[in-house]
Design brief:
Elements (H helix, E strand, L loop, with lengths): L2 E5 L10 H9 L3 H18 L10 H4 L1 H6 L4 H10 L7 H9 L2 E10 H11 L6 E4 L10 H15 L18 H17 L8 H4 L6 H14 L6 E5 L5 H9 L3 E5 L3 H4 L4 E4 L4 H13 L1 H8 L4 H6 L4 H10 L5 E4 L5 H16 L1 H4 L3
Parallel strand pairs: 1-2, 1-4, 2-3, 4-5, 5-6
Antiparallel strand pairs: 6-7
Helix pairs in contact: 1-2, 2-8, 5-7, 6-14, 11-12, 14-15, 14-17
Length: 359
């Protein structure tokens, strides 16, 4: 039986953050607006552990505002299709992995973007999980449109919340950040839910965090596959539960150019501008299993990979086409903080500072 390969999309496959790009395109000062909502999302998940709230629900929270600026499904479809930026080697990597594993994408991204990406790389859309939504089917009153536009500008002008490493309660934030968090609580859990458009929050299921892990479980149950055959690739806070699930059940959890959330929950950290590294790791894992893979990767080099008969063409492309050789490391308690720092910086180089610093 083939192995089971499951990957996040934005980060491990493409350089995009489609929701950030949509907000920047269609909402005035949309980059600041999205950054502030995204950081608030991190606060709710990582600090307050808000009950019933899923990492990545930024994509849910910004929907009323996209509607308020009269964004349509067609506009998002066209924008998404026109702005896909793939990690180098993605199509070759996915094609190679198809020969050794059942392939799935589990992504918080909107369905518009995932459909466009699948078409661009020839990936079967039926093997994807993502956030489904339609702006065209939602009504908005002129009064709500005006109010939401005012709120969007208010949010865009807030200072970016600073999350201290050991913050656990509201009191652990600066007085300035406490004011922002309290105001965002009012906006998202009081004011918008009382609007007609607040139904968006009830109707849209964001595939992030816990929902991603449930998607991985669904794949495993559908294929009747053991977790020891599962490799999961992620890069952000939305992948934490999935990385943990796979790691704790004997599969292989991989952070690809990940932020601190991903690195801390992965077996393996990959820093690479070329996606063929993922194909190499998958090739070793599906031939030898978890323990042998970790052993081989702990001595990451072209010679070590040749010794276990990794496809020579893959090796040639990975070690010969990059500006710098990819870095693959086993994550341990001893090196975790260093890898977090290295990976976070490399992530910004590959995807840009604005997207790279998002949770």
């Amino acid at each position: 039986m083939k192995g089971v390969f499951v990957s996040d999309c934005e980060g491990p496959i493409s350089k995009n953050d489609n929701a950030y790009e949509l907000a920047s395109k269609f909402v005035p000062n949309g980059n600041n607006f999205f950054n502030n909502v995204s950081k608030y999302d991190d606060v709710l998940v990582d600090v307050f552990c808000k009950s019933g709230y899923t990492a990545g629900s930024t994509l849910q929270l910004i929907l009323p505002f996209l509607k308020a600026y009269d964004v349509t499904d067609r506009q998002i479809e066209n924008f998404s299709a026109d702005n896909i930026i793939l990690i180098a080697g993605t199509q070759v990597a996915l094609k190679y992995i198809e020969t050794i594993a059942e392939r799935y994408i589990v992504s918080t991204s909107y369905e518009y973007y995932i459909k466009a990406l699948c078409k661009a790389v020839g990936f079967p859309y039926e093997n994807t999980y993502c956030t489904k939504v339609s702006l065209d089917k939602v009504a908005i009153t002129s009064q709500e449109r005006a109010v939401l536009r005012e709120i969007a500008q208010e949010i865009s002008q807030m200072p970016l919340i600073n999350i201290l490493e050991n913050a656990k309660t509201l009191a652990d934030f600066s007085s300035k950040d406490q004011t922002s968090i309290k105001r965002l609580d009012e906006i998202f859990w009081d004011e918008i839910p009382r609007m007609v458009i607040g139904n968006f929050f009830n109707d849209v299921v964001t595939v992030g965090g816990e929902q991603k892990a449930k998607s991985v479980l669904d794949i495993v149950e559908h294929l009747k596959a053991p977790f020891t055959d599962v490799m999961y690739v992620g890069d952000s806070i939305t992948d934490v539960e999935s990385l943990r699930l796979v790691k704790e059940n004997g599969g292989l959890a991989v952070s690809f150019n990940g932020n601190s959330y991903a690195v801390k929950n992965a077996d393996v950290s990959v820093l690479s501008e070329n996606n063929l590294v993922t194909a190499i790791v998958a090739d070793i894992f599906y031939r030898f299993g978890r323990e042998k893979t970790l052993q081989v990767l702990s001595h990451w080099s072209q010679n070590a990979l040749e010794a276990v008969y990794v496809d020579l063409e893959l090796l040639k492309q990975v070690f010969g086409s990059s500006k710098s050789s990819p870095k693959v490391q086993i994550v341990t308690r001893e090196n975790m903080n260093l890898i977090v720092m290295e990976s976070s910086e490399f992530r910004k180089e590959i995807r840009g500072v604005a997207i790279g610093r998002l949770g």
